[in-house]
Each structure stands twice: as structure tokens, then as C-alpha cells.
Amino acid sequence: MKMTGENSSGKSEITMEDVKNLVKKKDELEEQIKAYYDVLEDQGVGVEGPLVDEEGYPRADVNVYQIRTARHNISCLQNDHKAIMVEIEEALHKLHAREKAKREQDETEAVDEAMEQQVTLPPPFARVDAVTQGSPACGAGLRVGDGVIEFGSVNTGNFQNLQNIASVVQHSEGKPLRVTVVRDGQKAQMSLTPQRWSGRGLLGCNIVPISR
Fold first, then answer.
1. Distances 127 to 102, 160, 182, 205 between C-alpha atoms, Å
2. Which of 167, 29, 127 is CA-nearest to residue 87?
3. In whole angstroms, what is the distance from residue 138 CA to residue 197 CA?
4. Which of 43, 63, 113, 152 would disulfide-bridge 168, Cβ 3.0–4.6 Å?
5. Do residues 190 and 128 touch, judged by C-beta distance below 8 A?
6. If you count DSSP H runs as helices and E runs as strands, how many of each does the chain have, helices first?
7. Over pLDDT 70: what percentage of the chain?
8. Which among 204, 47, 25 is positioned nearest to 132, based on CA atoms?
9. E-assigned strand segments in the chain
10. Of 206 and 43, which is predicted with more confidence?
């Protein structure tokens, strides 16, 4: 049976739709087999019943041709049924194997990505230890515990003290600043605009230096 899904190398690739089509074909075969069994039952002979009388002549009380045709078709359809059951089993096996391989690959890639980020991320120079609800910092997405590795023009390489951040904030009122933090081992970027709000300052958060 020709499968519908094909990859770039030209080899057929089993899909769930292929499995559904195989199951549909199996059901159709079973219906046909049942219909022929019904024919034999109507004739009262079954699959093995004799078609000749005691004297060796074809029985006159049954339709011999119809019975022989039904028996032949049942035999052929049962062979087809066995073959398609094997196809279904193999298709499901391939489908499950591919899904398992993809799941394992996704997990490996996620671990590799996390390790790569942990290796390449610079150490934070400051940490957010308070964020006020409704503040510009809160609206930008800053969270308590975020490790700051970039705050506008200030980064891990040039940070000296909190005055660096204060200066950037004062000169950037109403202008968006790019802020990059490390959160749960992952890098997160956000846009923070220092501005007047109902609380104190222009940010609404407290940042403390990390001693190195």
C-alpha cells in the first residue's frame, strides 16, 4: 500500500492518517467477510458443509455456485485481512518509534540549549530585590530575583557601582531602555521606560549590586 507522507529522501514516512486509512480498510474487509458468512449461513452449509449429496451429485437444495464463490472470497479476504493487520502493526511501531526519537531529540536539544546559555551568559552585576506593583519596572516584566547583565549602556564589563544605573535612568526619562536579565538560568530581555508614576522614582524597583 502506497503511503501518502514522503520525506525529502523519497522514502515513505508513516503518518497517523496512513494508520487511519489502514484501519478503515481493515474494517471494510471485515464487513465483506461477514457478508459472505451471512450468505453461507442463509444457505445452511457454512464454510465446511458438503456441496454434494450422498450419491455424489451437486446438492439441489442449495446454490452451489453462490456458496463456492462465497467460500473462495472469504479465503481471499481473510488473507488480505491478515496482511493488513501486519501492516497496521508495523505502521504503529514505526509511528511510535519516530515519536519517541523526536521526543528524545527535543529533550536533548533543550538540555544543550540550556547548557549553552549557561556557558555563554555573562555573570550578573546586580540583582532585583523589590518590584512595586503598577510601576514601570513591573509593567516591563522585571521580577524579584532577576540577575541584571545589561541595563541600557551599563553591562557586566563596564559596571562599577549603582550610580552607573542611576545616571542612565536620569538621562533616559521617557525613553525605552533595553534591560537583559538572567532568570532561572535563562536570558530574558525587556524594554523598560523610566517615567513618572504614582510611586517614588522613575522605575519602581530596587536593584542591589552583586559583589564579585
1. 38, 14, 9, 11
2. 29
3. 12
4. 152
5. no
6. 4, 6
7. 91
8. 204
9. 126-131, 147-151, 154-155, 177-183, 186-192, 205-209
10. 206
pLDDT of residue 116: 63
Residue 131, classed as helix, strand or coil, is: strand
* Least confident interval from 119-123, 158-162, 163-167, 177-181: 119-123
Q: What is the pTM of this model?
A: 0.45
Whole-number pLDDT of residue 117: 59
Examine the pLDDT at 8 and tell me if it is beyond 50.
Answer: no
**207: nearest Cα among 158, 134, 144:** 144
Q: Round to whole Å and give the CA distance between 117 and 187.
A: 7
The per-residue pLDDT for range 180-199, each reduced to its tens digit, is 999 988 889 999 999 999 99
Return the closest-CA partner of residue 186 out of 113, 105, 103. 113
The whole-angstrom separation of Cα 154 and Cα 11 is: 54
Residue (of 98, 38, 93) closest to 66 by Cα position = 38
Dist. CA 14–CA 95, nearest whole Å:
6
Q: What is the pLDDT of residue 118?
A: 57
Q: Measured at the alpha carbon of residue 172, what is the angle toward residues 171 and 173, in degrees to the nearest 5?
A: 105
Cβ-based neighbours of 68, under 8 Å, separated by 6 or more = 51
C-alpha cell read off for 198:
504614582
CA distances from 11 to 22, 40, 105 (A): 19, 44, 21
